[in-house]
Amino acid sequence: MFPARRWQACINFGGDMPINRNVLILAVAVLCVAVGALGYKVYQDNREPKGVQLNIGSGGISVEKK
């Protein structure tokens, strides 16, 4: 029978090198920050600009204050 082992804070994905729990936490944190930054960029790109908007078209020039 195998001797009882203490739980070790590492995960082995079938390879010879275990991944430390701190590395996994760091990877998840980096992914969360990246998703947040990309979400904020999409929000900034899609929101309406504030200030004056000039529209030039077939009906002439129109100015709107936002």
Topology:
Blueprint: E1 10-11, E2 19-20, H1 21-46, E3 52-57, E4 60-65
Antiparallel strand pairs: 1-2, 3-4
What does this structure look like?
The protein has 66 residues and is α+β, with helices and mostly antiparallel strands. It has one domain (19-65). The chain contains one helix and four strands, in the order ββαββ. The strands form two sheets. Strands 1-2 form a two-stranded antiparallel sheet. A two-stranded antiparallel sheet has the order 3-4. The N and C termini lie far apart (76 Å). The mean pLDDT is 81.
N-to-C CA distance? 76 Å
Strand content: 15-25%
The ordered string of helix (H) and strand (E) elements is: EEHEE
Uncertain parts = none
Structural class: alpha+beta
Number of domains: 1
Give a quick account of the main beta sheet: strands, pairing sense, barrel closure: 2 strands, antiparallel
**Percent helix range:** 25-40%
Count every beta strand, where a strand is a DSSP E run of 2 or more residues: 4
- Overall mean confidence score, pLDDT: 81
Q: Helical element count?
A: 1
Taken from the alpha-carbon principal axes, the silhouette is: rod-shaped
